[in-house]
Amino acid sequence: MNNSMKLSLSTEISKSNNVGIVSHLNPDGDNIGSILALGISLEKLGKTVTILKSDYVPNDLLFLPYVNKIIKVEDDLKFDILFVLDSSDPERLGDNKRYLSNSGIVVNIDHHISNTNFGNINIVDSKASSTSEIIFKLIEELELPLDENVATCIYAGISTDTGRFMYENVTSSTHIIVSKLLDTGIDAYYINKKLYQNRSLERTKLFIEVVGTTKLLCDNKVSIAKVTLENLSKTNAKPEDSDGIVEFLRDTETVEVSVLLKEITTSLTRVSIRTKDYVDANKICSHFGGGGHLRAAGCTIEKSIDESENLIIEVIKNYI
Ligand code: AMP
Ligand code: MN
Ligand code: MN
Ligand 2 centre and the CA of 141: distance in Å? Predict the structure, then answer.
């Protein structure tokens, strides 16, 4: 963040009382971690904060402090300032997109390469490991309140978006930030157990069911699996219980691209893509109006799961 941006953001925060914070559909740890961290910090500063719920909160994030502050708002509230976090474009907000035109000023804070710079102030750094990392820097630079609760949420956001500090988006700055988070007194072992050793039985059953149907294509460079509505009802799992499968598919030696197709309805499919070395996941998903990052992206296709599979394979073949 350059000095003029810092100054204008700092001025806008001091001028405003009524703050809204929102993030994307199909939430992940960076989404929930960053909105809670900023929300708790700004509330400590004395602001009136509303954290808008765009979608469900995943089970493994329900342990985060103040998670019940993420609320569904039916009335059209007006905010002096609206922070949109971890969201590449307004469509990602679902119904909460309406708050963009209902707010005095929109601050867009994100790390997606496909971000459209839709805010009045845009703090977009595609090199940042996570939005949570950008929020930490902002809290530090603007001298906003930081405590164990804020730090816990930021730690969860960074850890989940970096695949537990594994991906190429991890820098020395990421580790320096984590060191500062640990110094606030957070219990990292507790956070890690809650995040990674707490899978529901339904989720494990879904994993076993789905991974067994994996197909390997293009000389074993492409790995594809499907989560059908039938798989969900058989295992009593929820759609979000498929989180983590696409990373498992990627982690085979020969695999460069992994794909998980999720049947939402008989004519709507959600696609998650992960890549390892040279294929641009964002490019593949942008063919279908989606996006994300170089190594992780997603899109939604208005076709059946089988038709979507064929379409996505055709596109991948051009990049592999
Ligand atoms: P997912 O496969 O849903 O975990 O998404 C992987 C990454 O791509 C995440 O950072 C998402 O925020 C992003 N992403 C997923 N779907 C879209 C989309 N339709 N447009 C832009 N980014 C997306
Ligand atoms: Mn996210
Ligand atoms: Mn993120």
Answer: 23
d(CA 121, CA 50): 19
Cα–Cα distances (Å) from 289 to 88, 134, 271, 283, 292, in that order, read 12, 26, 11, 10, 11
Ligand 1 neighbourhood includes 157 CB (under 6 angstroms): no
**Distance separating alpha carbons of residues 115 and 127, to the nearest angstrom:** 12
131 CA → ligand 3 middle, Å: 5
Mean pLDDT of 163-192: 97
Looking from the CA of residue 282, the nearest atom of ligand 1 is 8
Mean pLDDT over the full length of the chain: 97
Instruction: Report all structural domains of the chain as residue ranges with CATH numbers, in order of start.
Output: 3-196 (3.90.1640.10), 202-316 (3.10.310.30)
User: Residue 257 carries which DSSP code?
Assistant: E
Among 1-15, 140-154, 299-313, the minimum mean pLDDT is found in 1-15
Residue 287 Rama label (left phi>0; alpha psi -120 to 50; beta):
alpha
